[in-house]
Amino acid sequence: MNQNVQQFKADFFKALAHPMRIRILELLSEGDKSVNELQSNLGTEGSAVSQQLAVLRSKNVVQGIKEGTTVTYSLRDPLIKDLLTVAKQIFDNHLVDAISMLEGIRKDS
């Protein structure tokens, strides 16, 4: 059982392991978006966005609902928004540590 959970976590984090996929999730954290809206916000071509969405869909991180010719994407689990917030806080903590270390080095010079 524990190994299944570990494998799920590994697969889940692999799905997040691309800057564009993270940005897509950040945008979807703000609300549901169509492919065209995502493409416009990302400033990239549709094929790249579609490719990254396919990875996120395959790992059940996002879901798409087709309405006519438009597919609207949303997060499958709202906790993903919290995960992104925590990741940002961890980044900020590392940045604060790096700045403190740099200031210490400058004082010693």
What topology does this entry show?
Blueprint: H1 2-16, H2 19-29, E1 33-34, H3 35-42, H4 46-58, E2 62-67, E3 70-75, H5 79-108
Antiparallel strand pairs: 1-3, 2-3
Description of the structure:
This protein is of the alpha+beta class. 71% of the residues lie in helices and 13% in strands. It is built from 5 helices and 3 strands. The chain has helices at residues 2-16, 19-29, 35-42, 46-58, 79-108, and strands at 33-34, 62-67, 70-75. A 3-stranded antiparallel β-sheet has the order 1-3-2.
Q: What order do the SSEs take from the amino end to the carboxyl end, as H and E?
A: HHEHHEEH
Q: What proportion of the residues is helical, as a percent range?
A: over 70%
Q: Provide the residue-averaged pLDDT.
A: 92
The number of distinct β-strands equals 3
Short structural summary:
The protein is α+β, with helices and mostly antiparallel strands and about 110 residues long.
Structural features:
109 residues; 5 helices; extended; alpha+beta
